[in-house]
């Protein structure tokens, strides 16, 4: 099996690649080749001579259509994880770059899948990392039938990609699965354009006994999952049989809904810190409107095909800092 990951040098991409390298499998299928795509890589992959698979890092710009087509056409693809994106804040500042990466590169991937299917008869699986940003303004309860009302270009780009992946799957050109990821914890400290970075920062800082000013109020509610949980769901997303995808190709992943006060309490319990004394609150109206108004969530379609959340907030907080 040949697995290709876009955005492989990112937070989730690195974790997914490391999981595949450690297991050598996606589901029950053995991986023989792993191709990692990103603009650059922080460090070379582990010595592939010690592994029972071929690993390649391909550095390039996904906005460069010809480079992407050439790279995708080198070897037949079995599973593609499309994780690369221009995130919320950055996509707002640079509209053209956001569209070129978030929409145009996705279309190039889909066209490459179509070309492979038509020329060889071998239809690749495409697992697309969508986002809960597609919902935008939410009702009192989010379900599989909730209308999509994205508030930012990033969410709009994800909606466009979901629709096209569904259409290419309908036509038999790709076996697509769009997974709407919630906030993923805990991201390392870095300037990535992620407006939700404070959700990672609060766990990392308070777990070490450091003070933290939270940009949302104690009662503000959000959704999040740990990085290990997201990796498990991505692996499952590629492994689940196409015959089980009866009514939809798009899944809002099960995740936990909790208040910031709940999170602070969980950090205190898990890391044995006086968290309530370490955290103060200085709500930012924009941040709270984007990330602190989340209602309860029901995900029956995802539940039915085996996707899962962390189980408890304490477990999420504990798993968030696992290496």
CATH H-level superfamily of the largest domain: NAD(P)-binding Rossmann-like Domain
Shape: globular
Secondary-structure element series: EHEEEEHEHHEHEEHEEHEEHHEHHH
Helical proportion, percent range? 40-55%
N-C termini distance: 27 Å
The number of helical elements comes to 12
**DSSP strand count:** 14
Keywords: Carbohydrate metabolism, NADP
Domain NAD-dependent epimerase/dehydratase: 3-211
Protein name: NAD-dependent epimerase/dehydratase family protein
Organism: Marinomonas arctica
Task: Describe the structure concisely for a colleague.
By secondary structure, the chain is α/β, with parallel strands linked by helices. The chain has two domains: about 1-180 and about 225-250, NAD(P)-binding Rossmann-like Domain (Rossmann fold), CATH 3.40.50.720; about 185-225 and about 255-295 and about 310-320, UDP-galactose 4-epimerase, domain 1 (Alpha-Beta Complex).
What tags apply to this protein structure?
323 residues, alpha/beta, Rossmann fold, UDP-galactose 4-epimerase, domain 1, 2 domains, 7-stranded parallel sheet, 14 strands
Helices and strands, with pairings:
Layout: E1 2-6, H1 11-23, E2 25-26, E3 29-30, E4 33-38, E5 54-59, H2 65-72, E6 79-82, H3 88-93, H4 95-120, E7 125-131, H5 153-170, E8 175-181, E9 183-185, H6 198-207, E10 212-214, E11 221-226, H7 227-239, E12 250-252, E13 256-259, H8 260-271, H9 275-278, E14 279-281, H10 285-291, H11 300-304, H12 313-320
Parallel strand pairs: 1-4, 1-6, 4-5, 6-7, 7-8, 8-12, 9-11, 10-14
Antiparallel strand pairs: 2-3, 11-13
Helix pairs in contact: 1-7, 2-4, 4-5, 6-8, 8-12
């Amino acid at each position: 099996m040949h697995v290709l990951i876009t955005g492989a040098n990112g937070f989730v991409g690195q974790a997914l690649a490391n999981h595949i390298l450690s297991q050598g499998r996606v589901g029950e299928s053995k991986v023989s080749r792993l191709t990692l795509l990103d603009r650059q890589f922080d460090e070379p992959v582990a010595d592939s001579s010690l592994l029972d698979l071929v690993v390649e890092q391909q550095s390039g710009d996904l906005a460069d259509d010809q480079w992407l087509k050439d790279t995708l056409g080198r070897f037949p693809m079995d599973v593609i994880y499309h994780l690369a994106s221009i995130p919320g804040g950055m996509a707002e500042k640079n509209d053209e770059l956001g569209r070129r990466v978030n929409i145009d590169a996705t279309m190039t991937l889909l066209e490459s899948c179509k070309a492979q299917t038509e020329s060889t008869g071998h239809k690749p699986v495409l697992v697309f990392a969508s986002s809960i940003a597609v919902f935008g303004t939410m009702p009192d309860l989010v379900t599989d039938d909730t209308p999509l009302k994205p508030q930012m270009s990033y969410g709009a780009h994800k909606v466009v990609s979901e629709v096209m992946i569904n259409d290419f799957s309908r036509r038999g050109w790709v076996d697509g699965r769009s997974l709407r990821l919630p906030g993923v914890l805990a991201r390392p400290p870095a300037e990535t354009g992620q407006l939700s970075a404070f959700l990672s920062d609060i766990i990392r800082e308070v777990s070490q006994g450091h003070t933290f000013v939270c940009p949302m109020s104690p009662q503000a509610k959000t959704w999040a999952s740990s990085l290990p949980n997201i990796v498990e769901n991505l692996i499952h997303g590629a492994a689940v049989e196409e015959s089980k995808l009866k009514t939809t190709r798009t899944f809002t992943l099960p995740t936990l809904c909790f208040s910031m006060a709940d999170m602070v309490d969980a950090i205190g319990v898990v890391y044995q810190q006086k968290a309530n004394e370490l955290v103060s609150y200085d709500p930012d109206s924009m941040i709270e409107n984007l990330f602190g108004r989340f209602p309860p969530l029901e995900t029956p379609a995802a539940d039915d095909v085996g996707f899962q959340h962390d189980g408890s907030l304490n477990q999420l907080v504990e798993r968030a800092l696992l290496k």
